Amino acid sequence: MLIRTKKVSDCLESEVTDESVYLNRRQFMKATGGIALGVGGIGNVAAALQEGNSLTPPPSLASSFQNIIETPYGLDEKVAPFDVATSYNNFYEFGYGKNDPKDKSSEFKTTPWAITVEGEADNTGIFDLDDIIKASMLEERIYRLRCVEAWSMVIPWVGVSLGDVLKRFKPTSKAKYVYFETLYDPQQMPGQKGGGLDWPYREGLRIDEAMNPLALLAVGMYGSVLPNQNGAPVRLVLPWKYGFKSIKSIVKIRFVETMPETTWGTLAPSEYGFYANVNPNVDHPRWTQKQERRLPGGVLFPNVVETKMFNGYEDEVGSLYSGMDLKRFY
Ligand code: MTE
Q: What stretches pass through the bilayer (predicted)?
């Protein structure tokens, strides 16, 4: 994602999860600084493993969630190697280079983690992330992530249904949209000391988009907790939208009546719309969106693939936009 003002190198429940599983995992990580506990079931990742152990997280993250519900999403996809998905990142709070998030986020503190829920809902307040997650089933979903910069990756996420979580806050009939905000902490996030973006990073969804079953509140990937550079401890994953909608390290959820301002929509409204649905028929003003580089790939083998409408998830989400002019509401 290019920021005009700076030079950037390249773009940008039935069976409720046993709460002890999730809590033990996070408490263990906290107590030991993240040494491997042992390996439990990791869902579909093993089945998708195609490149030796390159889908395996390092020992510091190697303990796995257990009782992950396997889902049919993405079983035929070639999953990106772990080290690619965790070293080629956009997380501008840690810098603008693709390696910066990995290089500069190792000291980022993610326990304990609270999320403030406010606005048009009956059940508002400050909630511990563990309490939010433990009430839902953990699922593994292998999704395609399509960045607006025209690269993409297939990533096996672990998370819970965003809609299930939001419903527990009991949004009122005035809640037409939901707003999300990333942590603002320049001491920990060096990128926030500088300009470029108007911090904290902000995103939003129409309430029906947020309730769509595809929308995931992710706490892990490759069977383990999220690496810091991928948005630990909790982020959105919205596979039918450009990656910038999938906000990382969320500390605030606000139910609102009107369309909220978003970071990219405020910075460059002609380039980054509120909807940001993957759409090969609507080019970015400065580059085509008809194709994408599926990572990993290189100069000799760029691995270019055709971009699909809604990133290939039209059956699941197309009805959300029926009757809308998607060239106008990009
Ligand atoms: N969330 C925050 N808070 N800050 C960011 O810079 N970048 C977005 C999105 N979420 C970003 C963010 C962009 S542009 C993309 S493509 C995805 O995160 C990248 O996710 P990944 O690094 O896990 O692949």
A: none
**In total, how many domains does the chain have?**
1
| Concatenated DSSP letters of 92-108 | GGG-SSSSHHHHH-TT-
Q: Is position 239 within any domain?
A: yes
CATH of the domain at 219: 3.90.420.10
Distance, CA 308 to ligand 1 centroid (Å)?
20
Q: Is the peptide bond before 200 cis (omega within 30 degrees of 0)?
A: yes
Residue 65's pLDDT band, with cuts at 50, 70 and 90, is confident
89 lines ligand 1 (CB under 6 A): yes
* 207 phi, psi to nearest 5 deg: -60, -35
Distance of CA 256 to the CA centre of its chain: 21
Is 285 a domain residue?
Answer: no
Q: What is the pLDDT of residues 219-232, one digit of tens each?
A: 999 999 999 999 99
Instruction: Convert the pLDDT of each residue in 290-325 to its tens digit.
Output: 999 999 988 888 899 999 999 999 999 999 999 999
Task: Give, using CA atoms, the residue closest to atom 8 of ligand 1.
Answer: 244
Distance CA 294, CA 239 (A): 14
294 within some domain = no
Task: Indicate if ligand 1 lies below 6 Å from the C-beta of 243.
Answer: yes
Q: Which atom of ligand 1 is nearest to the CA of 153?
A: 24
Report the residue among 84, 158, 237, 244 best suited for mutation to probe ligand 1: largest number of ligand atoms under 8 A from its CB. Answer: 244
